[in-house]
Design a protein that fits this description.
The protein is an alpha+beta fold and 283 residues long. It folds into three domains: 50 residues, no CATH class; 83 residues, no CATH class; 119 residues, no CATH class. It is 31% helix and 29% strand. It contains six helices and 14 strands. A five-stranded mixed sheet has the order 3-6-5-4-14, covered by helices on one side. Helix 2 packs parallel to helix 6. The longest helix is centred in the N-terminal third of the chain and has 26 residues. The protein is elongated. This is DUF2303 family protein.
Length: 283
């Protein structure tokens, strides 16, 4: 090996050694992570500093979650698990929604001197929108909606177990009698003694026929999911526009029933949690 070659090889070794020393010095330093969890690292071949995206995004420094529950009992359980001294309850009676803001503003605890309230994040919320039960929704869907004879009979057959007065057997017997009638000419007369309605049908082939139907029924169903069953009156009405018979099921004070039961449910939660409820809406 010539002198020049020896010198060139020595310079290359010096350059590699210097680069290795730089790499060791750089990697031995603690490079700060970014606020989003990303990391700064030396990346070859030019060994430049680059920011690497975080493998798993970091969690927020506070809880940001909205939980919607379907039953009042679940609302109570979640509230008891996560409530803080700042938690507040708001009941929107117009829309039937109860909301717990678990991280509400801190009004302060100094009762002798005025203290500025500490703002809360209002990001952790528990919502109970009082979803209707399947049984109630079936009856509510037919509220004041005209249906034909066949649709009414099918509905009563399917939901006879919800009826407590008159007896389900009497309702099904009425359904059987109605199924044999196909005439469109009829008259209606109410029996004031027992409240039933006598419907007289006639046509050229079958002659005159009379069917007695109750003017009202009492159903026993839960209005809200997981709620207790309550008795509610349902009136049976008839209509005959252009001589065509149709029926209406009218739930007695339907909107008031839902409102009163929602208020009753909220007061039960208020009593169970020993926490006052603010009646109003929160944006």
């Amino acid at each position: 090996m010539t002198t020049d070659e020896t010198r060139g090889s020595g310079r290359e070794m010096d350059r590699v050694s210097a680069m290795a020393a730089q790499v060791v010095a750089a990697t031995s330093q603690s490079l700060p992570d970014g606020p989003d969890g990303s990391q700064v690292r030396l990346v070859p071949p030019g060994w430049s500093l680059e920011r690497l995206a975080p493998i798993v995004p970091p969690l927020l420094p506070h809880v940001s979650q909205v939980i919607s529950v379907d039953e009042a009992d679940s609302f109570t359980l979640y509230y008891e698990a996560f409530a803080t001294p700042q938690t507040r309850l708001f009941a929107d009676v117009r829309h039937g929604v109860l909301t717990a803001v678990l991280d509400y503003h801190d009004a302060g605890s100094d009762e002798t001197e005025y203290a500025d309230p500490a703002p809360g994040r209002l990001a952790h919320r528990l919502v109970y929108a009082a979803p209707k039960s399947v049984e109630w929704q079936r009856w509510a869907d037919l509220h004041r909606r005209a249906i034909d004879q066949e649709a009414l009979l099918e509905f009563l057959e399917e939901n006879a177990q919800d009826i407590v007065r008159p007896a389900a057997a009497d309702v099904l017997e009425m359904v059987t009698e109605f199924r044999s009638i196909r005439s469109t000419r009829f008259s209606r007369k109410m029996n004031l003694t027992n409240g039933s309605v006598a419907m007289s049908f006639s046509d050229e082939e079958a002659g005159d026929q009379t069917v007695h139907a109750p003017s009202e029924m009492t159903i026993h169903v839960p209005v809200f999911e997981g709620g207790e069953r309550v008795e509610i009156k349902v009136f049976l009405r008839t209509r005959a526009p252009n001589g065509k018979l149709s029926f209406l099921l009218v739930i007695h004070r339907k909107e008031l029933v839902e409102r009163e039961l929602f208020c009753e449910t909220v007061r039960g939660i208020e009593e169970t949690l020993s926490t006052p409820v603010w009646w109003g809406r929160i944006s």
